[in-house]
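Quick bug: O-fucosyltransferase family protein output formatted oddly.
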Amino acid sequence: MERDSSDEEEDRENLIPQNDRRNDGVKSPNHSRVVSFQIDDLKSRISGTASRFNKWYLFAILLPLVILILYFTTDLKNLFQTHISILKNPNNASVNRMRESELRALYLLKQQELELFKLWNYTALVNNKSSLSALNSNNDNSGNSSSLNKITMLEDLKSKLFSQISINRRIQGVLLSSHDSGDFVDFNGNYSDASFEDWSRCRKVDQRLSDRRTIDWKPRSNKYLFAICVSGQMSNHLICLEKHMFFAALLNRVLVIPSAKVDYEFSRVLDIDHINKCLGRKVVVTFEEFAETKKSNLNIDKFLCYFSLPQPCFMDNERVKKLKGLGLSLSKVEAVWSEDTKKPKQKTVQDVLAKFSSSDDVIAIGDVFFADVERDWVMQPGGPIAHNCKTLIEPSRLIILTAQRFIQTFLGKDFVALHFRRHGFLKFCNAKKPSCFYPIPQASDCISRVVERANTPVIYLSTDAAESEIGLLQSGVVWDGKTVPLVQRPTRNSAEKWDALLYRHGLEGDAQVEAMLDKSICALSTVFIGSGGSTFTDDILRLRKDWGSASACDEYLCQGELPNFVAEDE
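Here's what came back:
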């Protein structure tokens, strides 16, 4: 230890002289102390630099952690969102000008809305007058067609006005969304009539059933009217049957439904007992019930023929033979007046009572399909007879349920139904002036306009047209740039259950059942397009009125238009 101590002193002594020799110009007694302090200061500086360097490393490590914590714990949207009060700053001139412009725009929109409503109310007034004019017009078909065309044009105008008013209100709503409505004028005032909000271009038509003119049908139990229907197909026979019911009610007689051996099998398509239930008494019987009541005394005591031309009661010898084949004894067939099926005259209730009242038990008046008796009374919605149902003659319950199941499966709530008659219609229509047979492209355009008006995505097609015509029609029916599908009833498929009721009751494959099913589907549609001159269409329109499904957009195909091409006569 002593050696070490002497060595340190020797080294220090040797060091000082060396330094003295290198710094001869600096002589101070405190020189050795200054040198010592400089060495300590150097060490201190090195230690401070290292400390600052370690702090930067620590800061770089901690900063991302702090950012992550802030990101997950702070609502940055609210943190950086400009407070709405800045926008409401009254000292901000540009914002105030913007708000004044918005309020001015709202004022102008309100003025536009008022003017649109004035025009709306005017069209409603004109429309009501036109409707009354059409109802009170005479039987001139061209006059009726002109009135209906005017009504259609007015309805289309109202539809456009409705669209513009709706757009106007949407714009007002957007502008008002940035304002406190309580601080400004009330822009929410409704200056329209109450019906505006519920208005639709293809709205349901109010049939005013409470204003219906009716007659009570209270038949004498032993007095019968034997129905005879000869003209045309099933639809004609149903119309004939409906008119027979009116005659039976006027004459206080029970109506006898024709036998399937001489007419259609009505029991397969109609619910006969439904008629009796609607009136609460026995007013119609089947031929089998009539035969059971009369037993061996099956007679038609008197023929009082409504039509005399082309032959009395519109019956040929073949029909007489069929009636006799039922075991019926027939009296002489005679006409009560001169009446031609081609030119029927208008008759009144008094005319009928004067000519057809009889004390005989069983009478027949022949086919009355063409009879024109109290037309407005007979053709009114619900029919001329007082009852507790929507209508007396309607498809059977099985057919109606099947129609509803088909609609649920393939169509949905909103659809257009089209009865597009073609088979045998070309010659029939061209014999009329003007013709009612339209080229496919023209028909497609007419259908497309109705689809646009009705705003419906699908069409149910009831037709007897050939596949070539259906294909061309399908390609031409376009709305909003898209082809509108034409849906037809598919052939029987056991995997589909919508028609299971008909199958289980043995009604599948029956042409008349299928025709009545088509009528039911069409009668339940949102909008219906029919074929002018077709009794199939007329029966659908009757059902729609009676069921309350008739629409303001219902019309005949290309109503008010002439075919753009008509072939010459043979």
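Actually, after a second look the formatting is fine. The radius of gyration is 46 Å. Closing.
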